[in-house]
Amino acid sequence: MSLLRQIVQATKHTQQWSPVLSRGMASMRDTPVIDVDTALAKPEDIEQKNKLQGTITVPVKVDISPITGVPEEHVKTRRVRIYMPPKNAMQSGTNNLSTWQIDFDNRERWENPLMGWTSTGDPLSNMHVNFSSQEEAITFCERNGWRWFVERPDKPKTERVKNYGINFAWNKRTRVSTK
C-alpha cells in the first residue's frame, strides 16, 4: 500500500474520533491544575504555609540601626537634614519638585596632596536619598536611629507675566511702534 493511501485512511479514521477528542480536551482545559505538594500536604502544613506567606506587622517602633551594618559612630553622632531640593537652574522644567531629600552633616575633609582633590573618610557624606513626602523621610531617619531636623522650603515665587509676547501683539493699544 502506498504512503499516500495510508495517510488518507488514517485521516478518515481520526475524523470519526475528532469530536470525542475535542470534547475531552475542552473538559481538561476547564479543570484547574493542582500542585502535587498542595494535594498531598497535611492541613497543618497548609496552615503554616499560609501564615508564612502573610506580612508581619510589628506594633512597636522599629529601630533597624543594629542590623544595617553602619558603624555606630555614624549612627549616634550624625544629624540628618531633611529638605526639599531647589529647582535646578540649568533646567526650565518643573518636574520632580515635590520630592524630599536627606543629607548628612559634613565630617572632616582634607586635601589630597597628590592631585589636590578634596577627600573624606565618610561613606555617608555623598549619599542623597529621595522621598515622596516629608513623613517618609522622618520615618526612615527614625528607623535608622539618626537625629534629624527639617529645613522648611522657601515660599515659591509667584510667576509674573512675561512681557516679550506683548511686543508683537496685534492690538494697537499694547503694540509698541518700532519707528
From TrEMBL:
Membrane topology: Peripheral membrane protein
Protein name per its UniProtKB record: NADH dehydrogenase [ubiquinone] iron-sulfur protein 4, mitochondrial
Domain of life: Eukaryota
Keywords from the named record: Electron transport, Membrane, Mitochondrion, Mitochondrion inner membrane, Respiratory chain, Transit peptide, Transport
Organism for this UniProt entry: Musca domestica
GO terms classed as biological process: electron transport chain
GO cellular component: mitochondrial inner membrane
Annotated localization: Mitochondrion inner membrane
